[in-house]
Specification:
Strand content: 5-15%
Number of domains: 2
Structural class: alpha/beta
Oligomer: single chain
CATH topology of the largest domain: TIM Barrel
Helix content: 40-55%
Strand order of the largest sheet: 9-8-7-6-3-2-1-10
Distance between the termini: 76 Å
CATH superfamily of the largest domain: Glycoside hydrolase, family 3, N-terminal domain
Radius of gyration: 25 Å
Number of helices: 21
């Protein structure tokens, strides 16, 4: 059945129109009001587990037509509930938006240490394990299987891969989230992970530009300073981004870090036209989306004094999507003042429309077609296909492939039960105790703390070998306390093996890069000699 249009009536433009993304995006955005264009640059989190019709985030979607929502860990206790909530968001966005534009639905599902969507999803070895294995295929398949689970939940954008170099080994924020300290290798593995995400229909986002790995500080609480000059950054931290831009990465996240020995001086890179426009856009040639890290973080807002000022500076610097973990009131100052600035400042208005066009163009490119994530999740598939069964087998293999003998004095590995003698397990993980008891003839375990070292010493006096779980600074102090006992000490290093730099005297150390059950199984299996430890240290240990 065909509908005849009256003379002079122009059909409304729609997201589903069959045009090339760039051309259609231009037409869609040109038809937008200032309010509609501004709304596209916002991506908000929400605090509820299941945001119903009365939730504030729903008002931003239905009445303002915001560009996206961000899924945080507090939203993900129940995967089925999350999928239902996302489907409700998308249904409302498409129904209420004049152009029928869906939302970007983003999260942080890096694998390993950072896995915001938990519940049913796979607990994976993570980026540093991929760096230890060294195979681009491992990066690709990690991105693909992580992405396939996200797609079933209706999440279409992932803030991963993390291509920060592990330059400062005291960095708790980056740690095992990094592929390692080699710029070229990080670029290759990051590009492979991104391609795996794209194959699953997910928009990958490399982070944290221009690099967060050379500081021990956390930009959630303060503005970190990195002293490297631009030439150093160009050859080191920026090298992965240069590679990813050439490979066509769709999005990059800007980081809240200051580089005082560059022209940006103490301006956070996320708010710096020098870094985002001069370097990323012009010198590197990146053409995709630039997304801010959470603008609610102190590293972004400390110098401006007001969130709306920070948001304006972020847009003017070259960010396209403004991401915040909070949901502001509909008429909060961030909306009122930015809209007022659009009305009064032609340059700012043009920047907002430019950002909106880039956002809509990316949505047209990645949220349509056969590979696109369905806007409304199928709850039966969520129940049936998460965790990904094929992915589970791969991630176990990756855990085994990545195991590294970081210290192996006098060829202590393989360490059989006979060679180990009487074993004491000292740890801070129930899985560690469970697997260790199976590996070493029901060896006793002791949950250590800084306050019970005396008890640990007493228990260790009658054993031959102490197998020690090391994940934190506290573990280093306990290890130092038991050193005088003269026992054989074997460390199972979990997450970053950088803590081994403080205890080079231990007899052996097997490095795994996640605290998941599968990674610990792989570590004990390698220690016993049942599987090889072919992983290579992904960064240089400094004893």
């Amino acid at each position: 059945m065909f509908l005849l249009l009256s003379a002079g009536v122009t059909p409304a433009l729609s997201f589903t129109d069959e045009q090339a993304p760039e051309a259609l995006a231009r037409e869609l955005v040109q038809a937008m009001s200032d309010e509609e264009a501004l709304a596209q640059v916002f991506m908000f989190g929400w605090r509820e587990l299941e945001a119903g019709p009365s939730a504030l985030i729903q008002a931003w979607i239905a009445r303002r037509h915001i560009g996206g929502v961000k899924v945080f860990g507090w939203n993900t206790v129940d995967a089925e509930r999350l999928a239902r909530t996302i489907g409700g968001f998308q249904r409302e966005s498409i129904r209420q938006s004049p152009q029928k534009i869906p939302l970007f639905v983003a999260t942080d599902q890096e694998g390993g240490l950072v896995r915001h969507v938990k519940d049913l999803t796979s607990d994976t070895p993570g980026a540093m394990a991929i760096g230890a294995s060294g195979f681009p295929e491992d990066a690709y398949r990690s991105g693909f299987y992580i992405g396939r689970e996200l797609a079933l939940l209706g999440i279409n954008m992932n803030f991963a891969p993390t291509v920060d170099l592990y330059t400062n080994h005291k960095s708790l924020l980056i740690s095992s989230r990094s592929f390692g300290d080699n710029p070229a290798k990080s670029g290759v593995l990051g590009a492979a992970f991104a391609k795996g995400q794209l194959a699953a229909g997910i928009v990958p986002t490399a982070k944290h530009f221009p690099g967060h790995g050379d500081t021990a500080l956390d930009s959630h609480g303060v503005l970190p300073r990195i002293s490297a000059d631009f030439d150093t950054l160009w050859e080191r931290e920026l090298a992965p981004y240069r590679m990813l831009a050439k490979e066509g990465i769709p999005a990059i996240m800007s980081g809240h870090i200051a580089f005082p020995n560059t022209p940006a001086q103490m301006t956070p890179a996320s708010l710096s036209p020098y870094f985002l426009t001069e370097i990323l856009r012009k010198k590197i040639g990146f053409r995709g989306l630039v997304v801010t890290d959470d603008l609610s973080m102190n590293g972004a807002t400390a110098n401006s004094g007001a969130l709306w000022i920070t948001a304006k500076e972020a847009l003017l610097a070259g960010n396209d999507l403004i991401m915040m973990s909070i949901t502001p009131a509909l008429d909060a100052t961030i909306w009122v003042n930015l809209l007022d600035a659009m009305h009064k400042e032609s340059a700012f208005r043009a920047r907002v429309f430019d950002a909106a066009e880039r956002i809509v163009s990316a949505k047209l490119k990645y949220l349509r077609g056969e590979k696109a994530v369905p806007a409304i999740p199928d709850l039966d598939k969520v129940r049936r296909d998460i965790p990904d069964k094929e992915g589970a087998r791969f991630f176990q293999d990756l855990a085994v492939r990545s195991v590294t003998f970081a210290i192996n004095k006098d060829a202590v590995f393989p360490l059989s039960q006979q060679k180990a003698g009487r074993v004491l397990l000292a740890g801070q993980s129930l899985d560690f105790f469970k697997i260790g008891k199976l590996a070493y003839n029901n060896a006793p375990g002791w949950w250590y703390t800084a306050g019970n070292v005396g008890d640990l010493k007493s228990r260790a006096a009658s054993v031959d070998t102490i197998i020690f779980y090391l994940q934190t600074e506290e573990g280093i102090n306990v290890l130092r306390a038991i050193r005088p006992l003269g026992k054989r000490v074997i460390v199972v290093s979990v997450l970053s093996p950088a803590y081994l730099e403080a205890v080079p005297w231990v007899d052996g150390a097997v490095a795994v890069y996640s605290n998941s059950y599968e990674s610990l199984v792989a570590g004990f299996s390698a220690a016993l000699g049942k599987t090889p430890a072919n992983g290579e240290m992904p960064f240089t240990l400094n004893p």
